[in-house]
Structure prediction request, 252 residues.
Amino acid sequence: MIDLSYKSNQPIYEQIIEQMKLHVMKGHLQPGDAIPSVRKLALELGITPGTVSKAYQELERQQIIETIRGKGTFIADKIQIKPDEGKLEERKKRLQTEIMELRMMGYDKNRIVELVKEIYEEMIEC
Amino acid sequence: MIDLSYKSNQPIYEQIIEQMKLHVMKGHLQPGDAIPSVRKLALELGITPGTVSKAYQELERQQIIETIRGKGTFIADKIQIKPDEGKLEERKKRLQTEIMELRMMGYDKNRIVELVKEIYEEMIEC
DNA sequence: ATAACTGTATCATATCAAATGGTACACTTA
DNA sequence: TAAGTGTACCATTTGATATGATACAGTTAT
Prediction:
């Protein structure tokens, strides 16, 4: 379900957050679906429950999942769409960075646009 | 010349690297141009020379700048283009993350593509 | 009730990257 | 010679990440 990379400089909890979001986006996880308990996922990944909990708490803050004490954690009924202006600016900045780096690698405008389209399509497909 | 954000989770030296690259890309800095000495820039930004040096060394490793002992640091004559397959995969992954987040915010394919084009154009203009 | 499962909270600890502050060395220019 | 370059250390601090252990509170099934 989750595939961790320990070589990555990306924190474990962030990797969990992103991959859960991808699963939701691809439809592998539907609203109402249960996701593994913090203990189960921690055991499966060989990490501490606290780290999984940290990821789940951020996902809940973003209203991607809902947690019910004693019952478990579930995909939210309605995936919220939040404009969140401040975050949008951050996203644009990061996007600019990636585009700049690709340009440094010799990618021109069209190749970058094509790459973005490719990545988008891959993300939708199951 | 460089605008630091201390609130950002992005390290200072990385911010310097990115903004220098942007200046080169926008043409504000031309091949052969001198950039501030590590001490001057450190003083201007209120940081340690070692941090600026770290940024400059990475920029030199990427052949964006050239340093000459006792003389100073300059924009490289030819900005190298390096395919660097491993890095490309990292870039694609990060791009995927940004695209996913934008989609979570309600951006559809066309809006994302338009945003990418916008950012690209902004990057070229002075 | 009881057992087994949920998520949450806390604490001390360890690790690592980032940045600081200071010092020193080697080179170039005026 | 003096002032300015980049570089190289080193000890220290800070903050984020993750661990390991324990404990609490709620739910479910028996």
User: Anything to note?
Assistant: The two ends of chain B are 14 Å apart (CA to CA). The helical segments of chain B are 12-26, 38-45, 49-61, 85-104, 109-124. Residues 9, 37-39, 49-50, 53, 56-57, 67-73 of chain B lie near DNA strand D (CB under 10 Å from a C1'). The mean pLDDT of chain B is 90.
